[in-house]
Prior knowledge:
This protein has 217 residues and is an alpha/beta fold. Helix content is 43%, strand content 12%. It folds into 2 domains: 6-17 and 85-209, HAD superfamily/HAD-like (Rossmann fold, 3-Layer(aba) Sandwich); 19-82, no CATH class. Helix 8 (162-171) links the parallel strand 4 and strand 5. Helix 7 crosses helix 8 (162-171). The relative contact order is 0.19.
Amino acid sequence: xxxxxxxxxxLDGTLADSFPWxxxxxxGVADRFxxxxxxxxxxxxxxxxxxxxxxxxxxxxxxxxxAIARHMRRMKAAHLADIPLFPGTGAMLQSLRxxxxxxxxxxxxxxxxxxxxxxEAAALFSHFDCGASLFGKARKFRRVVxxxxxxxxxxxxxxxxxxxxxxxxxxxxxxxAVMWGYxxxxxxxxxxxxxxxxxxxxxAPRLVAGTAGRRAD
Length: 217
């Protein structure tokens, strides 16, 4: 049997290549909501920072976060055609399903956006829990695990940001980190996730074949 029964995926930066779109649009959002613009020289240092540090550096007022998130979701809904899935995403998800894993998606985006972006691959997911706040993923991880009927020891999250690892730890589940998303690889490795995925095609073999190891509950 695979070491995990439930794989909970993030969307942006993990399955969908949205970072270029984010960089093209974030400064317009900054002007609209009154936080600091991101200059080209800021990008790499921000990729090494956690979410709270990023908010601090950009001088984002916390009370504005819900409105900023709503605005970004509306913008993204209008530009989904400009945000492709990473190559190999569909095949990877199909291999996980064929290997006996249940798939779930936890995202800060709306479920409708997520389903449109995933296209035919959306049918491979048994559970969606979307609209997560910046620091609200742990609660959604726990809820998905309960709904899917598994224990925390049977679940692993797969994401691309520091907050994804932090949320998995808070929820008591294992975490896998992909090296092609928003956060810098060294920032993710420094948090010692259970598995590091260098390439999309590494995910299914490692989760299905049982090379990841299983955490104790």
